[in-house]
Amino acid sequence: MPLLVLGAILTAAARGTDVYEAMTAGAKKGLLLTWSILPSLLVIFPALRLLRASGLPELLGQVLQPLFTLLGVPEETGILMLLRPLSGSGALAEASELIQRHGPDSLIGRTAAVMLGSSETSFYVIAVYFSAAGVKHDGRALPAALLADLVCFLSSAWICRLLWG
Question: How far apart are CA 23 and CA 29, in angstroms?
């Protein structure tokens, strides 16, 4: 990392760019971006905490268990599938628990790891990035993102079952 920073500084200096001015301008843009997305973060984090504390993801996991079984998805990963679009830290905690309980080399542990690595916290990404870009109407983004997450979950389960099942 230090070599990368040094290389960027040397390249900028060789091109005649005022390195200090460029770095402070970049820092200013970063602070302005942080300030612009702060309202979204102040809303989404407490909402996610409330959702997780309500027990709704666990209840939905139990209700949807027959569907997960029909689709070939390990039923233990149901809560992970429901949490991942909402909360990265909640999904990471759930995946860690699954891996610890079933083992990292188990089908469930591997499936949880692949699901976690191939999907995204869609609600968070949409809230933060759209807020930063000033997008007001994102009507198709959320359904597309949730569909992409579903495809990631299903393909993760099927590929893991194919390779290690």
Answer: 10
Q: In which residue are the tokens 């979204």 written?
A: 40
What tokens appear for 33 in the block?
Answer: 């971006």
Q: How far apart are CA 114 and CA 5, in angstroms?
A: 32
Enumerate the H helices of 55-140 as residue ranges: 56-63, 65-71, 78-83, 88-102, 107-118, 122-133
pTM metric for this prediction: 0.70
> In the chain, which stretches have pLDDT less than 70?
none
Q: Domain boundaries in the chain?
A: 37-164
Handedness of CA 60, 66, 68, 74 (dihedral sign): positive
Q: Residues 18, 20, 25, 31: what is their CA dihedral angle, to the nearest 10 degrees? A: 170
Residue indicated by tokens 């993801």: 57
C-alpha dihedral sign at 62, 56, 97, 99? positive
